[in-house]
Amino acid sequence: MQSSGGASPPGRPDPSPSTTESGVSRRLFGKVAYGVIAVAAIGTATTYSIRAASATGDLSKNLTLIAPAGAGGGWDGFARETQQAMRLTGAANNAQVVNIPGAGGTIGLGKFSTMDGRADTILATGTAMVGGIALNDSPVGFSDTTLLARVSEDYDVLIAAADSPYNTLDDVMTAWKKDPEGFVWTGGSAGSVDHLTIAQLAQLGGIEGSAITYIPKSGGGEAIQTLLAGTTDFASTGFNEVSDQIDSGRVKALGVAAPERIAGFEDIPTMSEQGYEVTLTNWRGWLGAPGITAEETTQLVGLLEKTRNSAEWKDALTRNQWSDVWLTGQAFADFIVEDTKRIESLLKELGL
């Protein structure tokens, strides 16, 4: 683990969402602001050196941001950009980032679920955690936290080596349909947004998920190396991870999984405009600890909203090619349910 020093309240979800018509299990619903939630026991946990601080009073004085991943990853970058914007705006002058990596964010989630009433600590969350909960059959989920806000999202891009004979997504899909097992794909960990993006492309192309040959890597850099070495044919990875390599011509982009073309890279078509409506995005947001009060929840959402509205955060969005997707309250809870249904369906398609 590594660390570095230094709105309106959400609505109330259905108090008893054990099994709904969506078929999503109870552990995937979150407590939004009010009511009581059950805290899952996860046994004796490793002691993490998260700063001891008062969980009451002015939460802007001391705030710990947990990134449930290692240093240098997407969640870490999101947490540190949030930390920097909070400091510069005064939303939280003494904010620190703590890393608790592992298992699609569920190691950090498991530890966080034991921090009952700790309003001075928040946990980064997102698409990867939704997949991690399902893939790892996690004993804890969003119901063991307090939902605060969805903040930003970024998009995957399909890339190939610069000398690849494939120049469009349609070129790729046409060849893939003819030989479903003849291509090797790469991206992030199994069950990641990268992997799920490929699964969604396969669904849209009528290709069985079991036919996908996928080699997981730790990030865009490693994925590019496999393309250049010829050990893989295509990679799906976060656009901001490889934009400089695309710009330099080292690799070529065949399509971006975004609703519209990305500013500064308008020559790269979206997957949707090429006839493949890939809608999966890599969203990120924040969770509060279980058992915090409505007043503490309101204060935390307010701190996050102040940060989100700042010039410093808007600069971070531009630099990282992120989009603003602010969402709180019942709308955020409903979004989690729908995102879970979609990701569980894609994982099933992959046989995971």
Question: Your description of this structure?
Answer:
α1 crosses α8 and α5 crosses α10. The chain is globular, with a radius of gyration of 20 Å. It contains ten helices and twelve strands. A seven-stranded mixed β-sheet has the order 1-3-2-4-11-5-12, with helices on both faces. A five-stranded mixed β-sheet has the order 8-7-9-6-10. The protein has two domains: 221 residues, D-Maltodextrin-Binding Protein, domain 2; 119 residues, D-Maltodextrin-Binding Protein, domain 2, CATH 3.40.190.10. The chain is an alpha/beta fold and 352 residues long. It comes from Brevibacterium metallidurans.
List keywords for this structure.
352 residues; alpha/beta; D-Maltodextrin-Binding Protein, domain 2; 5-stranded mixed beta sheet; 34% helix; disordered N terminus
CATH superfamily of the largest domain: Bordetella uptake gene, domain 1
Instruction: Output the strand order for the largest sheet.
Output: 1-3-2-4-11-5-12
User: What is the domain total for the residues?
Assistant: 2
Morphology: globular
Sheet with most strands: 7 strands, mixed
CATH architecture descriptor of the largest domain: 3-Layer(aba) Sandwich
Q: What structural class is derived from the secondary structure elements?
A: alpha/beta
Rg: 20 Å
Which sequence of SSEs, written as H and E, runs from N to C?
Answer: EEHEHEHEEHEHEHEHEEHHEH
Tell me the strand percentage band.
15-25%
